[in-house]
Amino acid sequence: MLPLSTQQIVAVWERGQAASNPDLGLLLLSAAFPRIPVKDLLSLTLGQRDACLLRLRELTIGPELNCLTECPGCRAHVEVEARCSDITFSDLKTPVVMSHQLNQDGFHLEFRPVIMRDLLAIRGFPEVGGARETLLRRTITTASHDGQPVDISEIPPALIGKLGDILGEQDLQSEVRFRLTCPECGHSWASLFDVVSFFWKEITVRAQRFLSEVQQLARAYTWSESEILAMSTARRRFYLDAIS
User: Fold this and answer.
1) In this structure, what is the dihedral angle of CA atoms 122, 89, 142, 147, given to the nearest 10 degrees?
2) Which residues contact 11 (CB under 8 A, 6 or more apart)?
3) Segments in the chain forming alpha helices (H)
4) Which of 8, 76, 164, 187 could bridge across to 4 with cysteines, CB 3.0–4.6 Å?
5) Are 129 and 62 a contacting pair, CB within 8 Å?
């Protein structure tokens, strides 16, 4: 995996306008792994996807993560500082079990982890309930009670919750949470970290800054956008300082 170049950052940002969160994750991974077919990327589990995105973010921007979240108790802003390595628990070389079983109270379930293709399948759902049911129908491959097949809707919520716990334990990278305490009110909670949204915000800031620099340098020197974006950061900064 190589870091995203200036040209790639701008191109990915342009393609990602109005895209859904799952599509953004796929766009970033496609840029990071141009030789891997999209169908193979879509087979990655959420943990594998997020581990790759953390590594790409580290190579492209750096290892330090500076996040800002809101305390659910008093609504104060809380800063979170970490390193990518602190929340990276796996990579593409880490084996992932793709088939699991759960037997409880007469129920027998066979299921697999959520993969990227599943997320794309629910991106247009207007409500959480429909999306959740679709995910269950895609990931639970066998469901029976006392040896008789049952519909997904007949599985008790507690059993569905246990299924989720098993998948979370097997694919740790799929759900990363920061345990935080508000310095203002003392409230403690676990804040979910969404690497796709976080990384995309950083990509957006950088792409817009690069295009602003293109505008300035093109006006001053009549260079083309491709010529300017192909420059190193140091060289581009030199010319910007010269015209400021």
Assistant:
1) -140
2) 31
3) 6-15, 21-32, 38-41, 46-60, 116-121, 128-139, 157-170, 195-221, 225-229, 233-243
4) 8
5) no
Contact present, 40 and 32 (Cβ < 8 Å): no
Residue position matching structure tokens 């066998």: 142
- Going by C-alpha positions, the residue among 80, 29, 35 that lies closest to residue 57 is 29
Per-residue b or e along 71-107, where b marks 16 or more CB atoms closer than 10 Å to that residue's CB:
beeeeeebeeeeebeebbebeeeeebeeebebeeeeb
Element (H, E) at 103: strand 100-104
Separation CA 108–CA 114 (nearest Å): 19
3-state DSSP assignment of residue 35: coil
Q: Within 10 A of 202 (CB to CB), how many other CB atoms are there?
A: 15
Question: What token pair was written down for 195?
Answer: 């690497």
Return all residues near 95 (Cβ < 8 A) that are at least 6 apart: none
Tokens of 44: 């990655």
Q: Which two tokens stand for residue 91?
A: 């990579």
Q: What values do phi and psi take at 67, rounded to 5?
A: -110, 155
7, 15 in Cβ contact below 8 A? no
